[in-house]
Request: fold
Amino acid sequence: MASTDGAHGSSPRRTLPVLSRGLWTVLAALALLAVVSIVFAPSSMSSGALQGMLPFAAVLAIVAIGQTLVVMQGGFDLSVPGSVSIVVVIVTHQAYGNDAKVLPAALMALGVVLVAGLVNGFLIGRMGLNPIVATLGVNALLYAGVLGISGGTPRQTTDLLASVAGGTLLWVPNSLLVAVVTVAVTTLVVKRTVAGRRFEAVGANGRAAWATGLRVQRHRAGGYVAAQVHYWLGGLLLAGILNKPTAYQGDRYLLPSVAAVVLGGTSLLGGRGNIAATAIAALFLTQLDQLVLALGVNFAVETLVQAAAFAIGVALYSIEWRRLRERFARSPGPVASPS
Amino acid sequence: MSDQTQDRTPADLATDLRSAMRLTEISKHYDGVAALTDVSLTIRPGEVHALLGENGAGKSTLMGVATGSVLPDGGTIEVDGEPIDSLTPARATQLGIAIVHQHPAVLPDMTVAENIRVAVQADRLGGRRAAESTMRQVLDDVGSTAHLEDRVDSLSVAQRHLLELAKAMLVKPTILILDEPTAPLGPESVDRLFAWVRRAAERGTAVVYITHRLAEVRELAQRVTVLRDGRVRGTAEVDTITDDELLALIVGRQLEYTFPPKRPDVVDAEEFLTVEGLSGKGFNDVSFTASRGEVLGISGIVGNGQSDLLRALNGLEPFTGTVRIGAKDHTAKQLAHATAYLPADRHVEGLMMTLSVRENAALAALGRFRKGWLLDRGAEVETVGAELKDLAVKTASQETEVSALSGGNQQKVVLARALLSRPKLLVADEPTQGVDVGARAEIYRILREVSDSGVPVVVASSDAKELEGLCDRVIVMSRGSVVNTFAGADVTESNLIDAAVRATSRTKSKDRAVASTSATGSTRVGRFLQGDYAPVLILALVMIALGGYIYAQNPRFLSAFNITSVTMSCAALGFIALGQTVALLSGGIDLSVGPLAGFVVVIGSFFLVNGKSPAFMALGIVLMVLASAGVGAVNGSLIRYAKFTPVAATLAAYIALQGLSLLLRSAPGGNIADGVTAFLQLGVGPVPNVFILLVIAAVVMECLLRYSGWGRRLRAVGSDEGSARRVGVKVDRTVVLGYVVASLFVFLGSVVLLVQLGIGDPTQGVGYTLSSITAVVLGGTSLLGGRGTFIGTLLGAGLIIELLNATVFLDLSQTWQYLFQGGLIVAAAVIYGRVRGARASV
Reply:
């Protein structure tokens, strides 16, 4: 750290690399929520309630991390419902009542979502399509697959999957462990590998990355493929956690996944991704559901609280205060350009 | 100041009394640095007044003051003898002050005619009939060959400039400021431009002509003022001053920083960097060589191909010709890997502002820190730290966000990245632009050290003094060609400026100039295919073909019952999709339309029920309208004033509206009154009135979009917000109003939905968000904003409903519905994108 000598002129508060602002904020929010839960609805913090809540938080966390990767590229993935749903129906229908078929079915599901990710990546990275249009179309195609496979009917999950995804290890739900490992691995890949660091740079400023000689399109497309791997993992867990998942189980993950990304402090404009913060935000949102449920208030209130949390999240992070300040400081700027 | 100036004759003073504009003792400081000091300038009616000076001399700042876009710190402004207290751009326009910018404020998605109409008040164009011929006449006058219906993004740079000139001409300004208007023009256009400027002056317009070229001053101007370092160095009649005298006024800037010593002269130095016959976009047949240890400079007036040449040298743009480093020829692809590039605009092309200093610096050298699968954090920190220390980067730590650094230190971070990548060639574009004085000297030192270490360094700069101090060899470019080369002791500021300003070469027309070929070649068919209505035709054909096929399979498809049902569904989706179209045209998106439709239905289900009085029902309708308009206003305000992205703002509304619906009704309830249902189902034959209303609405909106000021402003904002603002569109107001209009269409859609559902169901409506976007995309409206049609959206909605209906009649499973929908939206987006030539996504 040779450069720490000249500290003047820049703010020292930006020196914590690990605990980003997003992580701090969302941890504080989670702590506050825990206190509120204990005071007003102790039942929502009982061991049983937590055991019931954590697996769903884990699934949302994993799916939301996938969404984070897409948002880091300034994109938006509407194919979450289709992908999660198709994974669920493939493993419940292909492997119906037969534990031996679980693994082949899971691999088949992985293949399907990887194709979906490649199509998304190609359409957006290469063909220059708007992410909303491309992922909207791919989502519809995935739903066609969901219906084709399931006919829209739910099926009982297999015992093996139920015991793996729904099981516990020393009272800790397996799904939670999977989520923690996912956070660790994805963070490591993004922050500590060559590809991950380039990926983050492309998201932060595509033109600058291009001027540096990076292959922008490939990294953009890669985000959509990597996201699908996360949806696959989330869908797989979900298929095991639920005794009899519906054919449209992914529907309820689109908006919360985006909300978790935003609350975790990843800007919808792209750039640095806060993967751990996204996961904590997923936990926050799931516990918020539990609290509202335990309080017995209208389901509507829960939705409104979510909307408020989302809006506050956006206001906190995506308004770029510093850039705004700079812009105001520079505002008589057009004349500064050379004549 | 101005020691050699103001040798005025009494006659001068007399005519000065009749001034179009008089600026007196104008001063302007930026962050304590003087941009203008006590500048006085008088512009007379009917004269062409040239403003000369190097880059950074203060010309543009001065003209910013004159047009109200820059607020001076001190001094007075008089227009036509009247003192103006505070000049704003709007006031300047009222006073008849017009400026033609170097970068044309044109809207790429709109046609030439629409660009003129959005910028020029209607009364300037004459009546409805006269407008077209007026515009054609003006375009002919400035030498533009563009068709009025040509879309501007199909025009060449030169044609866009001519369009910009035409707009200024139509305003008939009393004071006209031209900022280097000839830079992109071919010889024929320049002649026409000059003729036009002379005519304008004859009519009494005061013309300020900013230029770098002495030849143009001689040809056009009666008087000339020279600025240097923000001060007036002299004003003179053009006839009474020689070129050498003018040059003496332009050059001679005082520097507050020092340069490193140059390379000592070496006899028989090997040629280390050889460029031969290099041509590409923006430059032509460039050749030069540099030997080991030489810093090569590229001089010339900004925008004469220097940046394009540098990009080619860095392998970012294709080229023909040879680039040899050492003994090896390099292709563009090899150069992209082997060279490092310091872009002129750090913010856009240099740095990832939200990432840390370390992440920015290490980006191009990450491969060196690889240890197994992972990066060796220790090695990275150590290497980056050493480089930062070498370059004396002032930062709190490596983890500081790079945006917190000063301009000079940011530039050093870009340099650190370049050096860490161990390039074979270092290319720098304006390396000290926006860099403080202290850091400048250090950047010069670093560039010299890199060169000494055996890496060729090429520096482009608009600052001739800088090149004089830094470079051993300098080529001077004008209009994309090398006009002169200086080496050794000949590299002086005056030589470089002399070569640049005396260059008479005009742009090679085959590259980028007068588009007598490209733009005029547009045919009626070509314009149609490029235009917005091609998707409409495609959709109509697809719908007819599909309808025919279904009918052939099952004649009940055209039964009265089915027609009623299909058109009713189409009306609900159609209205909502029209609203979505408005949002997309403005460059945004409205994800909240679906939940809003549901919410409005829920409100209605409390009022429009059996047994209520008409007054009570009317109150309900008023509330439904108000709720819709309110949601639109909130969406628009969040986007414009709180700077939410459109996706974020309308997604928040999406979730909140779902909650509100559930709050009002936790379960379906409130049967819609029979009278209301019956009324809305009235129709002509099997077709309900609401559908006819939808078609009328689409046509009316289409006309408004094409022919009203509102429609043009909406598309202008969606096409290019910055340009729209510069031509006087009130962007915030336009966008907020757009979202309100979008929401009001959702209200209309929800009225139809009310009938279809027959009950207030809090969970209905949500699906309309995605199907409305699908309909709009099918209709050919661009998600980038600025172009699209309401008619297309109408047909898009029709096609979706027809497809859903088809699956019923053809006995297809629901799987096919999804397949059709997904396949169609992707296919439509890809095909339309290809036809138009998709805009680069980078």
The domain at 532-835 of chain B is CATH 1.10.3470 (ABC transporter involved in vitamin B12 uptake, BtuC).
